[in-house]
Specification:
The protein is mainly alpha-helical. It is rod-shaped and about 100 Å long. The termini are far apart. It has one helix and no strands.
Amino acid sequence: MSRRRATQLREQPGTPPRGAEVIDAQFKVVRGKGQSRVAVAGKWLFAFVCAAAIGFLIPPALVVLQEIAAMVRGD
């Protein structure tokens, strides 16, 4: 899906011709639907780092649990 190009507004010097409509309105720039690509990429990177941290922490935790179980059994 292609992005629509923004319409450039320009001001012409002088007075407007008779009968011309003059638009005098307040406007603000709003962001498009959804989040920016940087924000989405940041969230994916954060999720990947969290998954990697969990993946690296599970094996040492299992070893610690095995050691505790061995001490409780008296091995």
